[in-house]
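Slides due. Your pick:
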Amino acid sequence: MTRFKTISPGRPALFQRAARGPDRVAARWRAFVGSGLVLGAWLALAPVAQAATDPDPYPRATLSAQASTEIQQDTVRITLAAELSAATQQQVSDQLNTRLDAAMKLAKGHDGIQARSGAYRVWPSVGRDGKIAEWRGRAEIILTSRQFDAASQLAAQMSPHLAIDGLAFSVSPDRQAAEEQKLLEQAVQAFRQRAQALTDALEFPGYRLYSLDLGGSGAVPYAPAPRMMMSAMAADKVAAPLEAGQETITVSVQGVIVLLPIQTAPGQSAPSE
């Protein structure tokens, strides 16, 4: 008669194999515990070993320097807009399109003046009863130019179709890039002087550049012209004199330097203070 040996299903597999050989299981258990101790010791020594092999164990300092200049703004942006209302959405769209087409025909053929479409929107106006009382719409054309007088005259010619709604002055991208190139050299030179001054003040023999970041200023944000000025230009339909202002261009340099110790010959130690 064949006998079957019953093993409790709730007992761990490690102890279920005990009947096959207690010595073998004990040996595997000691090997498992030993590997855990070795792994823990390796993790504990890893930060120490990393600190010992740090390529820059010397003091570091974060410095910043900048150079800036003010230049005359050479670009104007004129926003012309038409806003009207009608009984239906189609009527508003047709009237806006008619004004845009007429204004764009006047804008074509002017060298040095860029004309492009701006915002275009049509929306319903709801009355007190909650129903649509009328439809309203607004459309824009934007003129950009370095020729202030020519742009002002063109805007006056377009005023029967679109009224002047805003003015903004800025520095052209190519001129800003040229100015930033000059300022970069000044900012880097100022950074070097500051780094050398700090090194001398702390009585270190030298420094080494660790990291460097560059930054610059962009164009000034859009600023609408005063309402009084725009209303006068639209009402008189004559060119108004445009005068730009100054804009500040800035280039900044920020970096980290490593303060280097006194170099000693092999087998010698640095002199003590």
Summary: Confidence is low (pLDDT under 50) at residues 1-22, 25-52, 218-236, 264-273.
